Amino acid sequence: MATLIAPTSFSPGADAEALRKAFQGWGTDEKTVIAILGHRNVYQRQQIRKSYEEIYQEDLIKRLESELSGDFERAVYRWMLEHADRDAVLANVAIKSGSKGYHVIVEIACVLSPEEVLAVRRAYHNRYKRSLEEDIATNTTGHLRQLLVGLVTSFRYGGDEINAKLAKSEADILHESVKEKKGNHEEAIRILTTRSKTQLMATFNCYRDDHGTSITKKLLDNASDDFHKALHTAIRCLNDHNKYYEKVLRNAIKRVGTDEDAITRVVVSRAEKDMKHIKEVYYKRNSVHLEDALAKEISGDYKKFILTLLGKKD
Ligand SMILES: [Ca+2]
């Protein structure tokens, strides 16, 4: 369930005019920008962008970039892009940031549906004139490269059928692979990059039943290198992405100095999808509402915008 509150009827022309007015003169009327864009769904935002371009012969996103600044500007910029295009940008930033960005690539590949991942790869072509997988392959090596390229190029089957025997045997293969670092990583990569999510869920359950601990706990014990960390993230995203996102937010808030980029990424990506569920998981885990925890850590227009996307009433 989404946290975004958007009206059922709206006028793209009137919104474009109000935004233009908010930009005029020295400075910007940020309150109006938040009141409008923080309450429009992806379809409506594209309509406003189109309308704005038609009336003023100016790209709304470019104008927003020049009017706003800092974390607020970055959040609004990401929010304004269509989903696949935004994920293409996030993936590109992640590739360029090396070891600190691998989890973002894994997130996109493992949380999105196979069709959505395909759309991101298409958007990446359009934007960067290269393929997502070639950029990943150029910037990584070894098992990590095999895993990341395998995940983004995977087109998993999406049905509910489970092969219980296969789940059991592949749980054993995974167990062997993560037990020791020199394990059979090729087979672990094959399983994680090709099996359907439902089949993998059954495999992870078998792992827990047969080996007395969850595969993610086991991986955490030796998740010191980038490959094992990426493997760990992949399994968490495939298994229960709401739980995964709760932890991303928890760590971002907990960190000294706060990780605004992570907060922006999760809120902007999930506000129109399942942010309500992530908020519930957060509350269950921390006994504090996500909005209250965030309100203490972030500030200014950025804070107002993020809280608006999280469903705060004006
Ligand atoms: Ca201005």
From TrEMBL:
GO terms for cellular component: cytoplasm; plasma membrane. It comes from the Eukaryota. Ca(2+) 1 binds at residues 23, 25, 27, 67. GO terms for molecular function: calcium ion binding; calcium-dependent phospholipid binding; phosphatidylserine binding. It holds the Pfam family Annexin. One of its GO terms (biological process) is response to heat. SMART domains: ANX. Keywords: Annexin, Calcium, Calcium/phospholipid-binding, Metal-binding, Repeat. InterPro entries: Annexin, Annexin_repeat, Annexin_repeat_CS, Annexin_sf, AnnexinD_plant. Ca(2+) 2 binds at residues 253, 255, 257, 297. The keyword Nucleotide-binding does not apply. Belongs to the annexin family. This is Annexin.
